[in-house]
């Protein structure tokens, strides 16, 4: 059941929040959560060097796999709400463990996270619920894969079944390339994650991300977003964790969204219920709008990055209440997302060589930033012994800005990016090209 009006309130004490994760996504969640005056302190395990620049935030260095130490720390800090950012701890059942210890947790249990950590399970789930998606074949050996690949008239998309840090999808241009991709997976390139392979019909159309905050039974939709996954301009080059995004996605008109709700979102939530999965967290629907309607490309069990960094600045101080209500199974009839009327855009600055090999440890210099409706979210940074900000990842940081239209948003984003310097900095200049009226490839 969907929800769409009125205010939110906290259901209980909400002073101390814990966020698990170390990326730009978690920093953007911290940034929106700190807006609420009930929140006194936000702890991040482990966060990154940018986390403590955010109001009320403190990093904690403990290993989340050391359950005894983790529980002691959470009790000591009197944590009121836990938000789990990345897919791995969700797939490992961290949310189940913490819920059993009576913590309020935003993030699905292991059963719900399977939507992301097993692509073949997710495809069968969609099949069971009659949810539109590309045709697929689940194969468990190279022999089986070979039969399917060479009996298909066109090259199929090849997907590693398990988690692969965004690197497990191959979109070959020829049938032989398709076989080679399957061969590399069955040769062990992805370890256990690649013991099963999903072969998929290749479908066409623009992509859009839709996020539903879910309390187990009810849900509420966040503004839509579009991201740019390819490394290079004109959406060329290898897939990455995301080079930038914008929100909302004007591509989706009200009719399209209604169709997505009826054919995809509600059937997904109904099917979760049918399978007795009490999903408390965000469901990320990666969709492709094909000529025959919207189809699911993938589900994720957490917020997407950079979409999360783009959407969070549009949310107001009530956002944390929604996270809490989802955690408690308590979204109410008439709930509303309070959001700005502005639009938002994000560009990621990466290290030279990303997503393959890259070096880290380069000093980051930040010049004169126009900080009105602009945020810098660190994704991969650390501090030197002298407190100097250093690059510490492939995706280093992002600039996110909001304004009344996308031309103004991206003008600010790129002006601010020109004030950021580190050795080998790389970013795309064409993020949001679809929605920038003043954009031309010749600029
Ligand atoms: P995924 O990790 O499943 O989101 O896939 C990464 C990217 O591969 C998607 O964003 C799409 O651009 C592309 N992709 C995945 N599956 C298909 C498909 N069946 N047909 C065409 N493109 C696909």
* Low-pLDDT runs: 1-7
Query: Strand order of the main beta sheet, please?
Result: 3-2-1-4-5
Rg of Cα set:
21 Å
| Major sheet description | 5 strands, parallel
| Secondary-structure-derived class | alpha+beta
Portion in beta strands: 25-35%
As a percent range, the share of helical residues equals 25-40%
Distance between the termini: 46 Å
Indicate the mean pLDDT: 95
Bound molecules: adenosine monophosphate
Helix count? 12
Shape designation: globular
The total beta strand count reads: 24
Core attributes:
443 residues, alpha+beta, 5-stranded parallel beta sheet, 24 strands, globular, disordered N terminus, binds adenosine monophosphate
Question: How would you portray this structure in words?
Answer:
This protein is of the alpha+beta class and 443 residues long. It is 28% helix and 25% strand. The chain is built from twelve helices and 24 strands. It has helices at 24-33, 67-77, 87-91, 94-100, 110-117, 119-129, 142-151, 175-189, 254-274, 307-311, 319-328, 406-417, and strands at 16-21, 41-46, 57-59, 81-84, 105-106, 136-139, 157-160, 169-170, 197-200, 207-215, 219-221, 226-227, 230-232, 236-239, 244-247, 280-290, 293-300, 343-350, 365-366, 374-378, 381-383, 389-391, 395-403, 420-421. Strands 3-2-1-4-5 form a five-stranded parallel beta sheet. Strands 12-15-18-23-20 form a five-stranded antiparallel beta sheet, sandwiched between helices. Strands 6-9-7-8 form a four-stranded antiparallel beta sheet, sandwiched between helices. Helix 1 links the parallel strand 1 and strand 2. It is globular. Bound molecules: adenosine monophosphate (AMP). Adenosine monophosphate is lined by residues 134, 157, 169, 171, 200, 202-203, 207, 229, 239, 286, 297-298.
């Amino acid at each position: 059941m969907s929800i769409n009006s009125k205010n939110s309130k906290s259901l209980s004490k909400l002073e101390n929040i814990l966020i698990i994760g170390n990326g730009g996504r978690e920093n953007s969640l911290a940034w929106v959560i700190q807006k609420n005056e009930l929140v006194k302190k936000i702890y991040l395990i482990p966060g990154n060097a940018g986390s403590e620049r955010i109001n009320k935030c403190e990093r904690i260095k403990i290993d989340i796999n050391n359950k005894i130490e983790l529980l002691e720390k959470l009790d000591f800090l009197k944590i009121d709400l836990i938000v789990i950012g990345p897919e791995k701890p969700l797939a490992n059942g961290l949310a189940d463990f913490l819920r059993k210890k009576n913590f309020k947790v935003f993030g699905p249990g292991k059963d719900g996270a399977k939507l992301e950590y097993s692509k073949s399970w997710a495809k069968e789930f969609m099949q069971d619920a009659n949810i539109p998606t590309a045709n697929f074949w689940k194969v468990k050996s190279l022999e089986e894969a070979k039969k399917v690949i060479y009996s298909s008239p066109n090259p199929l998309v090849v997907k590693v079944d398990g988690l692969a840090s965004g690197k497990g999808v191959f979109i070959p241009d020829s049938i032989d390339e398709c076989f080679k991709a399957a061969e590399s997976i069955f040769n062990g390139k992805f370890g256990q994650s690649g013991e099963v392979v999903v072969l998929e019909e290749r479908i066409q159309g623009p992509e859009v991300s839709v996020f539903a905050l879910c309390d187990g039974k009810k849900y509420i939709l966040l503004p839509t977003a579009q991201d740019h996954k390819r490394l290079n301009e004109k959406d060329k080059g290898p897939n990455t964790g995301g080079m930038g995004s914008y929100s909302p996605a004007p591509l989706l008109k009200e009719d399209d969204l209604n169709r997505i709700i009826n054919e995809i979102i509600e059937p997904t939530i109904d099917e979760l219920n049918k399978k007795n999965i009490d999903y408390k967290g965000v469901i990320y629907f990666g969709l492709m709008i094909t000529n025959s309607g919207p189809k699911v490309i993938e589900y994720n069990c957490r917020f997407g990055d950079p979409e999360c960094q783009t959407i969070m600045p549009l949310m107001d101080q009530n956002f944390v209440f929604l996270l809490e209500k989802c955690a408690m199974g308590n979204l109410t009839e008439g709930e509303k997302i309070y959001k700005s009327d502005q639009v938002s855009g994000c560009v990621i600055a990466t290290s030279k060589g990303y997503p393959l090999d890259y070096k880290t440890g380069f000093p980051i210099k930040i010049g004169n930033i126009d900080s009105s409706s602009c945020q810098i979210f660190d994704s991969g940074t650390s501090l030197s012994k002298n407190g100097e900000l250093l690059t510490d990842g492939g995706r280093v940081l992002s600039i996110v800005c909001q304004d009344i239209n996308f031309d103004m948003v991206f003008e600010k984003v790129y002006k601010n990016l020109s004030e950021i310097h580190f050795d080998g900095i790389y970013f795309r200049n064409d993020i949001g090209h679809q929605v920038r009226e003043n954009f031309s490839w010749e600029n």
